[in-house]
TrEMBL record:
NCBIfam families: GxxExxY. This is GxxExxY protein. It holds the Pfam family PDDEXK_3. It comes from Prosthecobacter fusiformis. InterPro entries: GxxExxY. It comes from the Bacteria.
C-alpha cells in the first residue's frame, strides 16, 4: 500500500465516522472511533505517541501526536474537533513531522458540518502539474 493509498483509506474511515456520528463530540470520541476503524482494517498504529524536541542534543520540549500509522511509510495523524482547520493546526502538524522525521501527516477535523482534512508534509512537495483545467494548484 502506498502512502497515498493509505492516506485515502484513512480519509475514507474518517468520513464514515463523521457520517455515522456527526460533528459535536469531543476529539477523544473520534480518536477512539478511528482506532476501531484502523483495527478492523488490520492497519497497525500507535496512539498518543510521545515526541521529544531536541536542541543541541538536549530535550527542550515534548509533544504528543494523536496517532502514527506504522505500516510501510509512516503517517502521522492529528485529530481535531473544532469549527475549522486553521494555520496553527497546520504548523503544529508540520512541527510534529519535523520532530519525528515522519514525512507525511494528515489533519482530520470532525467538528465541522462536513469532515475536513488536510495533508501536510515534513518537506515541501510542489504538486505535480496537471493537464486538467479544474486541478487548482
Amino acid at each position: 500500500m502506498t502512502i497515498d493509498q493509505l492516506t485515502e483509506s484513512v480519509i475514507g474511515m474518517a468520513m464514515e465516522i463523521h457520517r455515522l456520528m456527526g460533528p459535536g463530540y469531543n476529539e477523544s470520541i473520534y480518536h477512539r472511533s478511528l482506532e476501531v476503524e484502523l483495527a478492523a482494517a488490520n492497519i497497525p498504529f500507535e496512539s498518543e505517541v510521545p515526541i521529544n524536541v531536541f536542541y543541541k542534543g538536549k530535550i527542550v520540549g515534548k509533544f504528543e501526536a494523536d496517532m502514527v500509522i506504522t505500516i510501510g511509510k509512516q503517517l502521522l495523524i492529528e485529530l481535531k474537533s473544532c469549527e475549522t482547520i486553521v494555520k496553527a493546526h497546520e504548523a503544529q502538524t508540520v512541527n510534529y513531522l519535523t520532530a519525528t522525521g515522519i514525512d507525511d501527516g494528515l489533519i482530520l477535523n470532525f467538528g465541522a458540518p462536513s469532515l475536513q482534512f488536510k495533508r501536510k508534509f515534513r518537506l515541501y512537495r510542489p504538486r505535480q502539474s496537471s493537464n486538467d483545467p479544474f486541478d487548482i494548484q
